[in-house]
Description:
Elements: H1 2-33, H2 41-52, H3 62-73, H4 78-104, H5 111-122, H6 125-131, H7 137-156, H8 162-179, H9 183-206, H10 229-238, H11 253-281, H12 294-303, H13 316-321, H14 324-332, H15 336-349, H16 351-385, H17 387-395, H18 407-410, H19 413-445, H20 447-455, H21 457-473, H22 484-498
Amino acid sequence: MKNKTRLKNGLRLVIYGLMALQIAMSFYLMVKSLNYIPSFGDTIEYLELSQSLAPDEYRPILYPLFLRLMTGITEAHYHTLTYIIQTVAALLAFFYALHVLNRRWEKPFGEGELWFFSLFGISIPIVTFMNMSVLTDSFALSALLVMGALLIECLVGDPGRFYWRWILVGLLYMVQALLRQDRLYSILIFVLLLVVGQLVRGIVRMKHHATAEVSVCQPGDFPEDRVSEPAMSDRREKDTVITGDVPTHCSGIRKWLLTLVIPVLIMLLAFGTVRFIGSKTQEPGRHGRITTNASLVLLDRIVWPHLAEHYEAMPEDIKHTISYEEAVTFDEHNNNVMYQLAAIMYERVGKEQAEEMFTDMARVVWQRDKGCVIKDIVRDIAGFVFMPQRYGARVLGITTDKPRFGWNAQCFYDSSRRGVIWTERYFSVVFALILFPLAALVCLFSKMGRRRLFVLKPFLLITVLIGLWFAVGDGAPPNERYEMIGYATGCFIMLAGLKELKSPDIVPCGYCECPF
């Protein structure tokens, strides 16, 4: 037994050492980039918007306002101040999310370890790149992490703070939607599905219980040599929710209000507030972009990148409107959907006829090669969920995806080319291809590991839903900027597996009927 414990502790120290090296490499890159502005086209636009405060439908008002504040404090070094604030916000968001998860995992990690893990979270290369960029992605990820942790507390935490937590969830949803337009619907749908799913779960479980209370664990219910009395005391305080995650003192209609009506009303009120703010601050078409609609989604999700392949089968009016060479150019990059082909066709035949042509083109491609279209969509979703592993496979040459590193990383080459390359390679190989998969396997094949993994439900679901949103409904496949939540979820899964290496002093939750 002692040898087994020593082996676990030794392996844990090795993993901590690998994590510390990742943190050191990432912070070296941060220091090198503190006074450097990556050459994003979006960055230039955000700077212009911070002066004009006149965004279009793709650029909500919150980040330009933040930049206006930063430039007002220090115009010469506004970007350095921005980087520091974004990095600190990300660190605190990771810490809060880990703190909540740690409580659900029976507090296996100390506070110092949680700060260490939080530093590791912000040292994930793509997270580092976004924290050190004048872009909305860093704040959006931080808000999403805190919201995910709050949802865990809403669903299985102390019922006395139920209302305040849902109000905070609504506020964080508003922050995300006012940072990134794509979060307006995707996050709303996710939260509403989670609420309804939790309600259904509660109804099903209540059918199997004659009383509405969760049975409180008693010391006699556990083997005495495996359960500590402090753990039982802590569990008695925590297990004050019924199977529908509603306070035990509530009954009848109040239960339904707590589990469904109140959260839904809060989210819909937040949605309406964001739409109102958008209507007063955003003007569609102000910067010449093409508004996303159903026909444009068909063009992006079905026609791209198969137009040249099926060009000869297209109706004659389409071939008269666009040439084969333009079709080849269109297939080269997803941005061409919005900035090249659609704009050309709008100009040549008008918006209404162009959108009819988009539908015709999508029908031809779908009828001739629907298998390839489905494969593209599935690949987009899988690429989102398994982005760290895809990065690692790209680094080792297992896949032929190009560019070798994401375009966000390319923008940091001028700051520290060697730092970018080695930081990404190290993370991709050591963590994405070794530690993350091993941790996931531990969680899948260990009973208690699966329970810890189940606590990650909000983070896992939002990862899948945003991937699905972009792969099917938004009209643009997700790239690494949107997939940062996938990296964060992978980080949490690794820690859930790492918990298995710690010798438990108590029996993990699961021997009573509390949700986790």
